[in-house]
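Appendix C: a fully annotated inverse folding record. The material below is reproduced so that readers can follow the format used throughout the book. The structure is listed first as tokens, followed by the designed sequence.
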């Protein structure tokens, strides 16, 4: 039979390994979410801001790729 103290040590080691694995997974998921939000949300907002500043300075020849992407997405979602 295994002594209880040895089993307790093994159980504690397993819990530490589980906690470390969970922390690593959470950190990876948070990093991926950060990159996704930055690419999908913040980058288009930055381009919109730059276009708005250019228009505000009188440059009306600004092309905005964000609008085209949103229009394309609306056309994909429209079944008719």
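Designed amino acids, in order:
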């Amino acid at each position: 039979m295994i002594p209880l103290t040895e089993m307790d040590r093994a159980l504690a080691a397993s819990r530490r390994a589980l906690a470390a694995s969970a922390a690593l997974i959470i950190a990876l998921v948070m990093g991926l979410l950060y990159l996704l939000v930055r690419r999908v949300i913040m980058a288009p907002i930055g381009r919109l801001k730059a276009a708005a500043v250019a228009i505000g300075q009188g440059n009306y020849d600004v092309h905005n790729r964000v609008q085209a992407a949103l229009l394309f997405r609306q056309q994909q979602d429209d079944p008719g």
